[in-house]
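Action item from last week, closing it out:
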Amino acid sequence: MRPIKLEITGLQSFSKKQSIDFDELTSLGLFGIFGETGSGKSTILDAIILAIFDEIPRTMGRQGKNIKPCLNQDSDVLEVYLKFALGKDIFEITRVYKKKFNRKGEEKFDQMNPILILNGDIIADTVKNVETKIGEYFGIGVSDFTRSVVLPQGKFSDFLKLKGAEKMTMLENIFDLEKYGTQISEKLKFKNNLLKDKISSLQNQIQGKGDISVEVINNLENDYAEKISSLDSIKTRKESLESIYEETKVIKELTQDIEKYNLSLNNLKLNESTIKKYESDIQNHESALLFKERIEDINRLKSDLESKNTELMKSKEIQTKLDIQNNSLKEEENERTYSLNRVSRELDTLKIDYRELDSLRIGIQLLNNLHYKENQLKDSSILLEEFECQLNKNNNSLKDLKETLMKNEKSKEQLEKIDSNQIERKMEEISNLKNDIERSSALNKRLQDLKTTEENIKNSFNSIDIELENLEILSRNNLAVELAKHLSDGNSCPVCGSIHHPHIATSQSDFDSNKLKTLREDKATIERNLIAVQTQIVHIKDELNSIQNLKDIETLKNLLLEKIEEANSLKDSFNKASIEERKLDEIILTCKNNITHIQGDNNKILESISKVNDKILDIKKQILVEQEKIDTLHLENKSLDYMENRKYILEQMDSQSRELINIKITIDEDLKKIKDQLFENLKKIQESTLTIGRLEENISILTIKLNLDETSLNDEIKAQGFNSVNTILTFILDDVSAIELKKNIETHYNEEIRFKSLMDEALFKLDGKTFSKEKWENLQNDYSQIKEDEKKLNEQITTIKTNLERLKTLIKEAEELLNRISILTKEQDDIVMLQKKMEGKKFVKFLARKKLNYIVYQASKRLQQITRGRYTITVDNNCDFNIVDAFNSNFTRECSTLSGGETFIVSLVLALALSSQLQLKGKIQLEFFFLDEGFGTLDSTLLDRVIEILEEIKWKEKMKIGIISHVEDLKIRIPRRLEVSAAVPGEKGSTIKLI
């Protein structure tokens, strides 16, 4: 077991979440947890134990029933999360308790369902399931866990101080030795009965194989030999007949082949005229092919000549179009030049004074601003008069409201003199009476529920008790197999001492030990629940008696009615006064609100008056500035109408000027485009003229060449006997047709040669022999009959051989069954011998004593190393520890006589030896050891030796060792440590820091 990560929230002095990364903390093997006394060091061990076993033995009851002392008072939630490794498996477990309050305001603690995760998958999510799974994987309880793996305060020296019987029981539990006691005896008994049944079954199998005597086998072997002799005779006759049959078969096949070849040659003669025509067509085709290339050349010349004529016509058309387009462009150029001259003359006639135009625009804007400011000044003066009038009205209303407020407050003081304490006292009495009645009723109901629960628990207890008794009977059936798992050749058997194990037990009855363990735990839990329910019943009866001793329930109810009537009377008179008081409160509140509102309005009005005055002064200043700006413009006439008319005239002239300029720019751009197009067209006309000349020259050359080639071709055609070019073209075949004709001709002649050759070959092989159909049919019948006779004999031989093999197999199986009976009988004898040796618990005690002796041996080696050879540990006949002092003539002392420091050292070496031997579930090696002890009883020399031993264990046994202490000297000896800072009341809880 190796912790990986721990998270603590709300546990004892840890109010906020604190995390510990054990991979980093244990990276050097040896580590320490240090802090002041009471800082929360031991709480880290409590959190590990709580996460795994759901309890903290030193501070709470079992199963979290007394979790309250463990909860931090500044937190409403207690949560622990532990991630740890068991071998190659990674486990994660989370446990949460939440503080709640019932209707009476009493604290209660609810446990949320814990979650257990194995390698990323949830394997349990209820309290019971998690407890079961932890038991399956750990195999030890919290008591043994705190004595051998994680040693909290007060548990360190338990193993040393345990008496012999308790010590042996602990060793049986943590080393899982109980499977070698009564369990193995029951398994041996079951195995013995099983062997008896097997032997009986094998004997019955031998009897069921029937008659397998030697006489039956001899008869079958003689019959087999006779059939083999007959088969050999038939095979000789068959071989002779096969030779004649094969020879006749060859003559038959050759005669058939000759008939087939004659038929094929006759068919070829019928096709000779067609082949001759094919040969003539091929000859004409090959002669015409000599002129094909020249004909194709002449056709290409005609195609080129036609293409050149077409291109010449297109070039002449393009040249004509370009001439027409140039004439049109020249006319357009003349029109644009005339328009440009006219626009230039009009621009010269328009002369605008732009400085005058800018002055007019600024002057008009300034006059408009001036008029706007004068209107603002007039409006602000009117608004100022309105604010002053409203202020006077508000002051008069404020005076009236203050007088009304004073009158109403005096009336309220008179009403407040009525005393309401008397009503409160009556209501408190009524409440107390109601609580007594409700409490009595609730307790009676709770009493009935608990009695029902008590009955259900008793029924569950009886049911589990019956099932548990049945399972305990079955639990004695698997012992021999468990013992055999640990045996191997060469190692001595712990029962008989033999080093050879020829008949190791392998079968095992269908029994679930975990279910038995779970039922035992369920029975214990139900017993605890039954006691708790019965205790609650007694407690509720006591409470009911105390309430009923005070007063009868009916008397309480009558007294309650009287108190209610008195309270109602007082309430009526108080309510009337309260209604009147509420009305006055509403009036007073309204007056105060109105006064506050009016005062607020007055403040806003005064503020607004101040702002309006400031605004009037600002407007007057702005009007003076605008007038000065107008004077600086030096305008002849400062009338707004004159300036606007003059501005309009100048702007119209400016608009006309801009329009003419845009027209002029457009005309210039058009002229440029026209000239560019004219230039481009002239270039194209020149290129077209050159192209026309070149094409006319090419056409002339091609025409001459075509005439010469056609004349020469016609002369040669006539010389070869052809009438014309068209005649030649009719003789030319396509490539596929020509190839097909040649192939048909070649195939015809090749087939004729092949069939003549095959005919000659068949006649040579036949060598004058003839074929008789009647003899062939008689030969086939004889051959079929002899094959049928051979087949029947083979079937008879096979049947006889199969029966022989079956009988031999049965004999072999019977021999094997006899051998198995012999082996099982010997194994049964061994089981009987083991049963005699396993009587009582001698073997379990023997194994426990062996384990204890080895633990003492390992502990003594380390104790001698620490004490420089002075002390060793021994075990007496009662399995109690004693100390041998080598410096005092090997005097033997009881452990109770050791000093505090000596007790610490002896307890340490024993705990380390026990941890090194412990394997969870007998197979998972421990990787972790945690010690919560102060080390304060050791001097510096012993402390150094202890640290040396721990360092040695860390490297040799790959063990992670943790120490919790407040001793400062340890800090400098342990490089990797965790500092725990104590909680500060009202500020923060304990905190953790990795050093």
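Closing note: The first strand starts at residue 2 and ends at 9.
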